[in-house]
C-alpha cells in the first residue's frame, strides 16, 4: 500500500475576507468523531476575516475520526503522536505553498484530540505554528528536548468540571510550554469537556488582542 502524501489529507480551505498572503491562517483541528468542517463556525466567530484551514484526522477509532491514536482514555500512543504531528506539519507547509499563505502566520485552533496534536506540533515542529488556542487539552507527549518557542502566544482553555482532562495534567502542559518559551495563558471555565460561551468569548478576545509572529524556531 502506498504511503499517503500530505495532499491526501481531507481538508477544507476558506480564503480570508481580504486577499492577502500575510493574513492570519487558523488551522482547525477537531476532536474525536469530528471532521474538517467541525470547527469552521467556531473559527469564523473567533477569528472573523481570517483564512481557515480545517483538516480531518487520518486515524479512526470505532469508526470515528481522530488525529492520533490512543491506547485508552487519556493514554496516548506517543509514537503515533510523533508521526501525526510530523504529517500535519508537512501538510501545513504544503497548504502554504498551495494556497499561497505565510506559514509564519498560522495559529492553531484545536479542540480535545485536535488541541493535543496542536500542542505536539508546537513541541516538535515549533517553526510551523505562530501560536495556538487550545481547548480542553492535555500533555500529548514528553519531548526529549524542549524547543525554543520564542514567546509564541498560547491560550489554554480548560474546564474545572472536565472529567477527561485532569487539572494537574493541564497545568503540567502549561508549565511545559512555558519552559519552552511560549507566552502561556491558562484559563479555567466553570464547565466540563464541552465548550461554552465563555470559551468563545475568551478565545475571540485573545485572538483579537494578540500579535502572532513566528521566527524560524527550531526544536
Overview of the molecule:
The protein has helices at residues 40-46, 78-99, 113-124, 167-179, 197-208; strands at 11-14, 25-29, 51-55, 59-61, 64-66, 70-72, 75-76, 106-111, 131-135, 153-159, 183-189. It is of the alpha/beta class and 219 residues long. The termini are far apart.
Question: Short description, anyone?
Answer:
With 219 residues, the protein is α/β, with parallel strands linked by helices.
Question: How many strand segments?
Answer: 11
The helix tally amounts to 5
**What strand line-up does the widest sheet have?**
1-3-2-8-9-10-11
- Our measurement of the CA-to-CA distance between the termini, rounded to an integer number of angstroms, reads 32 Å
Helix/strand/pairing class, anyone? alpha/beta
Question: Could you name the key traits of this structure?
Answer:
219 residues; alpha/beta; 5 helices; 11 strands
Write the layout of secondary structure elements.
Elements: E1 11-14, E2 25-29, H1 40-46, E3 51-55, E4 59-61, E5 64-66, E6 70-72, E7 75-76, H2 78-99, E8 106-111, H3 113-124, E9 131-135, E10 153-159, H4 167-179, E11 183-189, H5 197-208
Parallel strand pairs: 2-3, 2-8, 8-9, 9-10, 10-11
Antiparallel strand pairs: 1-3, 4-5, 6-7
